[in-house]
């Protein structure tokens, strides 16, 4: 079975959703038969390459709220991240453009390292407060993922794989994706947002049963599964669930 995952490294719910998906997958009886493909989606392609303000100020300015309200919203998201075993350091987070990071993941895919690099890039942004536009930082992370630094440097020096990023985003647009994380199982079942692990498991089991003739389900439409407690980020901001 295949699972396509659209996400952005600057999206907190993409990291949280990744953990919840992994939790559901770990309980799936056929997890070893699942192939995961991470795809690019930039929430705000216009984000400056270098940090101009901290995340609290940026959030307040973009969504018309006070800095205190932004800090409270980030605290809420941080608590949800902590519940999944993640550490989000909003006070030192560097708000940067993610294009180069996405380009690097496509390079990593050609070497079987995209999943490893994706995890490291999320950690770099949310936990380690790294600048994902800094070339030396990206090269260090690429090396940690097992990639050749000189080859990665050559990629970052030009515009290689930019088209691949755009293709992923165009596919997402054709599917009607307006926010991330967004998961598509076997080109049939879509899960929008950082849903609970139980929902991911349910969708995996449903798709497996249909694929192997164990279900009466039929049809070609993309069915989207959602739940009230999910979190999702769009161009207009992150929808923060309560609790």
Word description of this protein:
This protein has 243 residues and is α/β, with parallel strands linked by helices. The protein contains nine helices and eight strands. It has helices spanning 12-26, 55-63, 67-83, 99-109, 114-126, 135-144, 149-157, 162-174, 197-211; strands spanning 2-7, 35-40, 179-180, 182-185, 189-192, 223-225, 232-234, 237-239. Strand 5, helix 9 (197-211) and strand 6 (223-225) form a beta-alpha-beta unit. The longest helix has 17 residues, at 67-83. The chain is globular.
Number of helices: 9
Class per helix and strand makeup: alpha/beta
Q: Strand arrangement, largest sheet?
A: 2-1-4-5-6
- Pick out the low-confidence regions: none
Sheet with most strands: 5 strands, mixed
Average pLDDT, rounded to a whole number, is 92
Order of helices and strands: EHEHHHHHHHEEEHEEE
The residue fraction in helices comes out at 40-55%
| Annotation, overall tally of beta strands | 8
The value of Rg in angstroms is 18 Å
The end-to-end distance, rounded to whole angstroms, is: 33 Å
The geometry reads as globular
Determine the strand fraction and express it as a percent band.
5-15%
């Amino acid at each position: 079975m295949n699972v396509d995952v659209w996400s952005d490294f600057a999206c907190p719910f993409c990291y949280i959703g990744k953990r919840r998906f992994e939790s559901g997958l770990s309980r799936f009886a056929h997890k070893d038969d699942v192939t995961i493909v991470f795809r690019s989606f930039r929430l705000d392609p216009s984000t400056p390459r270098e940090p101009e303000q901290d995340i609290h100020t940026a959030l307040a300015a973009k969504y018309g709220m006070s800095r205190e309200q932004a800090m409270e919203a980030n605290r809420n998201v941080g608590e949800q991240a902590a519940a999944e075993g993640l550490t989000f350091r909003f006070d030192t987070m560097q708000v940067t453009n993610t294009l180069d990071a996405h380009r690097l993941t496509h390079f990593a895919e050609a070497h079987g390292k995209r999943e490893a690099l994706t995890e490291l890039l999320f950690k770099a942004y949310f936990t380690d407060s790294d600048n994902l536009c800094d070339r030396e930082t990206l090269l260090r992370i690429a090396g940690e993922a097992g990639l050749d630094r000189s080859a990665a440097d050559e990629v970052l020096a030009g515009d290689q794989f930019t088209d691949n990023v755009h293709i992923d985003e165009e596919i997402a647009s054709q599917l009607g994706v307006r926010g991330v994380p967004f998961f598509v199982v076997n080109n049939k079942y879509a899960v929008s947002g950082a849903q609970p692990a139980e929902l991911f498991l349910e969708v995996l089991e449903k798709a497996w049963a249909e694929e192997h003739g164990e279900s009466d389900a039929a049809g070609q439409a993309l069915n989207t599964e959602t739940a009230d407690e999910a979190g999702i980020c769009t161009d207009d901001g992150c929808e923060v669930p309560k609790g």
